[in-house]
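Question thread 4412

I'm putting together a teaching handout and wanted feedback from people who do this every day. The idea is simple: show students a protein as raw sequence, then show them the structure tokens that encode its fold, then repeat with a second protein so they can compare. Below is the first pair exactly as I plan to print it.
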Amino acid sequence: MSHVPVLEIGGTHVTAAVIDTEARLPVPFPAVRQPVPADAAARELLDAIASVAHRVDVPEAAHWGVAIPGPFDYVTGVGRFRGIGKFESLHGVDVGAELLGRLPGAPSGISFVNDADAFAMGEYRAGAATGRRRALCITLGTGVGSSFLDAGHPVVEGPDVPPDGRVHRLTVDGTPLEEVVSRRAIRLFYARTAALPGTGRLPDVHDIAGSARAGDAHALRTVRHCFGALGRALAPWCERFRPDLMVVGGSMTGSWDLVGPAVREGFESWAPGTAPPTVTAVRPADAPLIGAAHWALHRSATPPVPT
């Protein structure tokens, strides 16, 4: 089985594609992406996800790969979304069983994988992390995603990685990391720093980056503070895990000319020389799809564990 249908479920969108795992590309047509109502009732949300899958030509009786953010039980396929502001209606829902009844082509099974792990495995298979024994892959979007790869496989336990291999669980200077480095946190820090009015629309991250490039001292301070904190949080784990490379993806990499130096400064402030070589993703759009396909391919070829 070299053609694997996949879904990437994000906080505001779903992407569907069929991946040729040998060529490491979507086939035979480009991936299909459309918005989904993350705050909708479970049935409406599941129908919206499945409707995207029906727009691609999938093989019959295929085993699907689905990349989805946490909190999620990736083994049982049950949602654990509670108190995070998205997919709340899927909390406690057997998403696997619900999708099996909705996906096209009478699927034979579904393998779920964390979206950050899917991105990392895709970059390992066909992107910046190819050929690297150990890689740390970070995504910067609404929040901070992470995956610690060893020979292309996510490491989720042991002394060399944070709990579950997730850096969003870390704290920096006593504060949860995502209260410092996330879309919401960055916008709020800039608003406080620039003493903006409490009402009205806050500038978004790309707007803050543009102001920083123009020399706005408040914006420059925001970038250095927020992304320097990310470097300080990552530094001790990079010292333990010793990645050959750090690959960064997500929407905030559009401002990497500012973000990158701030992250490195954070590393250096913790301990000089701890920062691994760092690059932005080569396949930012395709990597999660490619990773999910290879995850499904591996899982469908693995005999089930007797119960």
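The second pair follows. I'd like the answer to focus on this one:
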Amino acid sequence: MSNAAVHDVITPLEPLASVSLSEQVYGRLRTALMRAELKPDQRLKIRDLAAKLGTSETPVREAIFQLAREGALEIKPRYFVRVRRLSLSQYLENRDIRLQLEPLAAERALPHIRPEDIDQLARLHAKLIAAEQSRDYPTALEANFDFHFGLYWRSAMPTLIELLESLWIRVGPLLNELYPHGHPTYDGPHQHEVVLDALRRRDGYMLREAIRQDLLEGGRNFLRHLEAKEGR
């Protein structure tokens, strides 16, 4: 993605007196990373980001430094800022932690889920499937993120959410290679459908397993792609 393309995925900030500009920029970039709006190795120019977000360069620079400390960006002084690309081993470590934390977040969200929440998640899944079928992969990636965190955010566990978001700002950009190289496939129903069924049944064990299998079964083609790519 070119630097000009940053303007297509980073939306301008709206004035917020109660939140510092650097916090706003940080939040916007953090969201863009998690939702796969930025790609691995994509170079970012502070000047371009500041112009798009309608701020000076200082809050952008502060946000970038923070994201670099969190492992999402790389800074080469006097050379460039770019989105970090996870290696295969780093991806697997990230996934192993997610396999423990995401089922927990889903299970803890279960008592707080209302019928209208399930309906909203079902609409997000339908959006994902439609986007996959039309090959609108950016929309598919965003719908997938919104589906998962639409569930996790209801866990009422802010520390757990903070940990999950710190994992997703690192893995999110890499998911751009999910389509078409590692398109999810399932032996039975899509695991999102199993998640929805578990929510309707109020079955915590079923829900945990569906989240785990979505990562394992749904991610197996993606893992093969990463293994083949790193083996070249």
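Top answer:
Good format. For the second protein you could add a caption like this: The domain at 88-231 is CATH 1.20.120.530 (Four Helix Bundle (Hemerythrin (Met), subunit A)). The chain has two domains: 6-83, 88-231.
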